[in-house]
TrEMBL record:
Protein name stated in the entry: D-xylose ABC transporter ATP-binding protein
Localisation: Cell membrane
Pfam families hit by this protein: ABC_tran
Membrane-topology descriptor: Peripheral membrane protein
Entries under InterPro entries matching the protein: AAA+_ATPase, ABC_carbohydrate_import_ATPase, ABC_transporter-like_ATP-bd, ABC_transporter-like_CS, P-loop_NTPase
Key word Repeat present: yes
GO cellular component, one term: plasma membrane
Lineage: Bacteria, Bacillati, Actinomycetota, Actinomycetes, Micrococcales
Single GO MF descriptor: ATP binding
Keywords: ATP-binding, Cell membrane, Membrane, Nucleotide-binding, Repeat, Sugar transport, Translocase, Transport
Keyword Cell cycle tagged: no
Domain of life: Bacteria
Length: 504
């Protein structure tokens, strides 16, 4: 943790930014000291991303102070920001897939030798030195294509270190990482802090904030709320500051009458992906599907819905067998799938909210093959209202919404089909604590109305807080089925990491 007299490397004070009539930042403030890891948290729409984009040179502020190493700056491009010593590590880096790791790190600034020729040997040696310094083993010569998200992030960090960046911003870097990958990233982050760099860590995961960070700044509704040493606060304090109220029940699970079987999956097998998967989802029941990243949970969900095929087994809905690879048949039978990647698989990101909500029911809305905007808007308005989607209008482009509101739009789209079974993959990934509570309450209400829900989640508190039964997968197999009353973090993780069964 930095001392009180550690130099301030980045300071923003009362920064303002508007986009037309929309005020994205009312009063953004942040003070980052050298040799510290500073958490920046807040609900989606709190202004965190706008503040970061100003630091990164993507946006120019409309007002307020912005200083780097004590000198006032006003970046007009990302190149200026990088040249001044700022680096941003995004959740999903954008490397050039056909170029090698070394070429990506030195893109646009290749080392040259005699006669101005590119010195590939010198660049490779420098990359090896960087990776040794960061404690990672990545082949400098391999193409970037096929690298894991974790390795891509390490490459971006190596690039930042090679540029001697004094400020590194990590924006939701752990969302797609396994536990081992997260710990490696944290080890690297701590080593960079110990070198005297200042790091900003943006995350919705409080366990990570408390494990990694020295200080935390909270934003709400585009404004600065508070900065506190991490040792002097609690998750409950941060939640109150983020949402402006007590979120008394993050997992508002209602008791529901569990009825007859709806979805029955028997001996589902796809060689090399998952094997002999069997389970049942009943009316009024939330079944949690847990396991580590790569266990095969999402692949099973996609196979059940018909997006992906499978070699053996059966999927039955209310006694009716669903043919493999037939998502339209699954939809007609009453199954809906909210996918893990809402931006790529759940939304037409450049279309409006109304068009997205009605995407799956356009056939039902049409009259003699025609759909009017009025028909579309009436149907969309009902669901946008029920899920409290925060958008200026139904024609608001989905890409401009916060992550939480995008998730609500995807949910609205599938709930508009009036399914009997909802398969929802990572329902609250990347959304803020207030919206998480809303999504959990909605799932509980749907189960109370008799819907069966298969909920896939990598967040153990979510699984334990919401599921009536927990199925645990490991390496493509179900290793345990645990009743709600018996499910604990310990026995779920045991089943996720051990091949033998550990059912309660």
């Amino acid at each position: 943790m930095p001392t009180n007299d550690a130099p301030v490397v980045l300071e923003l004070s009362k920064v303002v930014k508007s986009f037309g009539a929309v005020i994205a930042l009312r009063s953004g403030s942040l003070r980052l000291q050298a040799g510290s890891i500073h958490a920046l948290i807040g609900e989606n729409g709190a202004g965190k991303s706008t503040l970061v984009k100003i630091v990164a040179g993507l946006y120019r502020r409309d007002g307020g102070d912005f200083r780097l190493d004590g000198a006032e700056v006003d970046f007009t491009s990302t190149a200026q920001s990088k040249a001044a010593g700022v680096a941003v590590i995004y959740q999903e880096p954008t490397l050039f897939p056909d170029l090698s790791v070394t070429e990506n790190i030195f893109m646009g600034r290749q080392l040259t030798g005699r006669f101005g020729r590119i010195d590939r040997k010198a660049m490779r040696h420098e990359v090896e030195r960087l990776f040794t310094r960061l404690g990672v083993a990545i082949d400098p010569d391999r193409p970037a294509e096929g690298l894991s998200i974790a390795d891509q992030q390490v490459i971006e960090i190596a690039k930042a270190v090679s540029l001697d960046a004094k400020v590194l911003i990590m924006d939701e870097p752990t969302a797609a990482l396994s536990g081992v990958e997260v710990e490696r990233l944290f080890t690297i982050a701590r080593s960079l802090r110990d070198e005297g760099r200042g790091l900003i860590f943006i995350s919705h995961r409080f366990d990570e904030v408390f494990a990694l960070c020295d200080t935390v700044t909270v934003m709400r509704d585009g404004a600065y709320i508070a900065t506190t040493p991490i040792a002097d606060t609690t998750p409950a304090d941060l939640v109150r500051q983020m949402v402006g109220r007590d979120v008394t029940e993050l997992f508002p699970k209602q008791d529901a009458a569990i009825g007859a079987p709806l979805l029955e999956v028997e001996n589902l097998t796809s060689p090399g992906i998952f094997h002999d998967i069997s389970f049942t989802v009943r009316s009024g029941e939330i079944v949690g599907l847990a396991g580590l990243v790569g266990a095969g949970r999402s692949e099973v969900a996609r196979a059940v819905f018909g997006v992906d095929g499978y070699q053996e087994g059966t999927v039955t809905m209310k006694g009716r067998r669903i043919r493999r690879g037939q998502p339209t048949e699954a939809m007609r039978a009453g199954i809906a799938l909210v996918p893990e990647d809402r931006r790529k698989q759940g939304l037409v990101i450049e279309s409006g909210v109304g068009r997205n909500i009605t995407m799956a029911i356009r056939r039902q809305l049409s009259r003699f093959g025609l759909i009017t905007t009025g028909m579309e808007n009436r149907a969309a308005r009902e669901w946008a209202s029920r899920l409290e989607v925060k958008a200026h209008a139904l024609d608001t482009v989905a890409a401009t919404l916060s992550g939480g509101n995008q998730q609500k739009v995807v949910l609205a789209k599938w709930l508009a089909t009036q399914p009997d079974v909802l398969i929802i993959d990572e329902p609250t990934r990347g959304i803020d604590v207030g919206t998480k509570s809303e999504v959990h309450r909605l799932l509980s209400e749907l189960a109370g109305q008799g819907m069966g829900i298969l909920m896939i989640s990598s967040e153990l508190p979510e699984v334990l807080g919401m599921a009536d039964r927990v199925l645990v997968m490991r390496e493509g197999r179900v290793t345990a089925e645990i009743a709600r009353a018996d499910a604990t973090s310990e026995n779920v993780m045991f089943a996720a990491t051990h091949a033998s069964e550990h059912a309660a």
